[in-house]
Amino acid sequence: MNSPAENSPDSSVPAVALRGVVKAFGTGDARTVALKGTDFTASQGELHLVVGPSGCGKTTLLSVAAGTLDWESGTVDVFGTRLNGMPRSRVTAFRRKNVGFIFQQFNLIPTLDLVENVSVPLLLNDVRRREAEEKSAALLQQLGLGGKERKRPTQLSGGQQQRVAIARALIHEPRLLIADEPTSALDRETGHQIMDILAQAARAPGRSVIIVTHDPRTYRYADRLTDMEDGGIAGVYHGQALRDFVSIHH
Amino acid sequence: MFHLALRMLLGDRAKYIMLVGGLTFSALLMTQQNGVFQGLLAWTTSHMRNMRASIWVVDSRVEQVNETKALRDTDVNRVRSVAGVDFAMPLFQGVLKARAAEGSEKLIQMIGIHAGTLFGRPTKVLEGELEQLRMANTVAIDELAAERLGSGVGRPLRIGDNFEINDREARVVAICRTERHFFGYPYVFASYDQALQFAPRQRKMLSMILAEPRPGMTPEEVARNIQAETGLAAYTVPQFEKSTISWIWRNTGIPASFMTTIILGFIVGIAIAGQTFYSFVLENLRHLGALKAMGASNGLLSAMLLFQAMTVGIIGYGMGLGLTALFGFAVAENGQPPFKLQPEAILRTFAAILLISGLAALLGIRKVAKLEPAVVFRG
Question: Looking at this predicted complex, what is its ipTM?
Fold first, then answer.
């Protein structure tokens, strides 16, 4: 049976909905509660930034929303599919199809060339190698990396590597794009180029982009912004409130 | 995804060379030492291939072909009278002293065979005629004897050359090719009666009796009959080989020594391959975590690691076996050290290398199975 995420193009369904999520690490005296009954909603067609001081639970929230981390209580829905109680293998399969990842350190495999790196999500989704590589080369071209398809990641600048990582995250057309500090390792100009690409990706129908960031330069790209503090939500901003927040913090 | 697994492996050139090198060394050590050990064991039973007979009759206390407990001369006729025996011939074997041309003394393996039938004769005669052994003071020598006893004249002995055995003159009438013996002594063949004259006199001189079964009867049946009717021990060739090798295992440190080296080869393989592959997995853990986050299942990642480990295993095995074969060809010329590579040993080494590769992969698989995909978000 297909999950709602695969069937429903209903744009009113939240991309991600966390309700009363609790997640703690460690036991006994060493137990640290990272999410304290957190509620979080990301809508389709939006670029959603999650900000807050270090250790406030941003990355934990992102990991739970992406289905890469188990939680203790509360509910997690991604495009209407409830992840609670889903067997791990099904969560993995769900992630494979519906989620794209962009990591702070790019996490490109250094021994593979760019086309091979970008092909990975397609190959994981059983696309034939030749087709996957053709598609990957075309996307790299679109992202301004034409002619560099057979280069290794280490032969590129940081900004180019992040563009390859974005190509890898988008290649299988996932509905949810998760990015962890995508501009922290980049200079100002390159950071803006990357945010432009991500903002454009968020506008695709039925897609949502959630970005965890410390970088105030990225705030102006947000459609919605969640400010976290001490494992909870300090505020959610959009519209005029968001513009005020940006002007105060930028 | 498997071609990407291969690219990841080959991309880390240093680790790849280390892995293949370790497994090559391990495979080489296991097959080469096994080959030398099997060659050495084969030497212990070379009598049976140099003097071919279906049934070997010895004193009941004798357990191996190189051991001699003299029989009575009348035992030959007792064996001949056993039902199913086609014919039976006496054999003398003993280690004697020979004097080379320059005066130095060498030990030789003297074999005395029945003069009438020459039963027990060497299989390949290179020069001369064995029939001349029926003449007085004549011997047939193998190539090793020709070389060792000819050291004083600066060339191997030839047909017609003389040397002394226990102060008796011996004239070479044939040169033959034999399989080398475990003790390293060269073979010298003479007629049975002549061999008794060369050997120091003892009360009983008959070392063994060689027999053949009648047509229609198996060596096993006839050996059983001989044993039952004479009380002597009678072995077929496979039985005597097995008994001889079993004796070597029980009474010498040779197998333990070789086994230790072979086991060390296995351990070295595990140590190098395991440690290097584990380090390869650790270095790629971030990327494996990223693959896991992107939806690669534990099963797929385990299969990729296993594929990588098996690839280096098979390449290392192939190279190790190739080097062993080169060693085999190099020593085949002079037969030193002995070398016999059996198909079972090749298969056993292959299984051992696959096991090493599997264990190396297992270390990585355990690590990856426990890896949380969320680890990639933690910097």
Answer: 0.82
